[in-house]
Design brief:
The protein is an alpha/beta fold and about 290 residues long. It has two domains: about 10-230, Spore Coat Polysaccharide Biosynthesis Protein SpsA, Chain A; about 235-294, no CATH class. About 40% of the residues lie in helices and about 20% in strands. The chain contains ten helices and ten strands. The protein has helices spanning about 20-35, 70-75, 75-85, 85-90, 160-180, 185-195, 230, 240-245, 250-280, 280-294, and strands at about 10-15, 45-50, 60-65, 95, 100-105, 115-120, 150-160, 200-205, 210, 220-225. Helix 5 (about 160-180) packs across helix 6 (about 185-195).
């Protein structure tokens, strides 16, 4: 369903993913903000939501997927998008947005002029980005290629370039999962690996500005605050270790492994943030020495 009446000759496909509580929490407001502020002359806007929700909202094309616990709810995005490329390829330009965003000002019409485009991460304006630094990881980015660090919440491109990105990253994720590997920042690490090797228009952080944080210029899109544990439906109960040890319950074991993974992974992320943001010089020296030693 078109969002404007300017006689469009091209189509812009907006893609988002909202399973579990995300759909009712964010999608209606995201759609309304796009209706209000996205105005690209000559373009009809189509809105696609990958979701497990049964609620139908006018103008939103729901694509059914299963809800998975985090991080798979975000890590599998490339696989899901690739599965439905036959539908999405009908658009001239494809743009991915996180569900927990709200447009608050009109973006530049030049947004759709580039082969690939992505937003610079506002959390790394004055420090190096959180590139994957494990040289054994498929998402490792060598120091010479660490130019811009992009946030995984807002990116896209012209159809042919978008399709190449999706197919490449979907294959990477599948291969890594089969081998039991997950990069430090999940889907964002994959995105930055690809964009470090392909030309991409770097959008300023105002295209994904954190809600509540003071900005030097007017934000275009806000990244909304949310209670991760509530929205992600992460378990907060104490683990039944004694029951697991004595009964050998497989479901209990799975919950234990899931929680231990999430806790350990988030601990690694916090550690890497401290290393990157508080030890910038030593971090750079270490990385360059490691790179040239190889």
């Amino acid at each position: 369903m078109p969002m404007n009446n300017t006689g469009p000759t091209k189509t812009l496909g907006i893609i988002t993913i909202a399973t579990g509580k995300y759909f009712e929490e964010f999608i209606p407001n995201l759609r309304a903000s796009i209706d209000r502020y996205f105005s690209f002359p000559g373009y009809q806007i189509n809105f696609y939501c990958f979701t497990d929700a049964t609620t139908q909202i006018s103008g939103i094309h729901n694509i059914p997927i299963k809800h998975f616990s985090w991080p798979f709810s975000t890590l599998l995005r490339y696989r899901w998008i690739e599965k439905y490329l036959s539908i999405l390829e009908g658009n001239d330009f494809l743009l991915y947005m996180d569900a927990d965003m709200r447009v608050v000002s009109s973006p530049s019409v030049s947004l759709l002029d580039h082969a690939l485009t992505a937003v610079c991460h506002p959390g790394y304006r004055d420090s190096p980005g959180a590139f994957e630094i494990d040289r054994q990881d498929s998402c490792y980015v060598p120091p010479p290629l660490r130019k811009e660090y992009f946030q995984g919440c807002f990116w896209g491109g012209k159809k042919e370039y978008f399709v190449r990105l999706i197919r490449f990253l979907s294959a990477m994720v599948d291969k890594d999962l089969k081998e039991g590997n997950i990069p430090i920042w999940h889907d964002e690490s994959y995105l930055n690996k690809y964009l470090s090797e392909h030309h991409c228009k770097a959008l300023p952080p105002v295209y994904a500005w954190p809600e509540g944080e003071q900005a030097n210029q007017e934000p275009i899109i806000l990244h909304l605050e949310k209670k991760h544990q509530t929205i992600r439906q992460a378990p907060t109960d104490l683990l039944d270790i004694d029951g697991f040890l004595t009964e050998g319950n497989k479901e209990a074991a799975l919950e234990i492994y899931k929680k231990l993974y999430l806790n350990s992974h988030e601990k690694c992320q916090r550690l890497e943030n401290r290393l990157v943001q508080k030890n910038i010089i030593w971090s750079k020296i270490r990385e360059w020495l490691s790179y040239y030693r190889k």
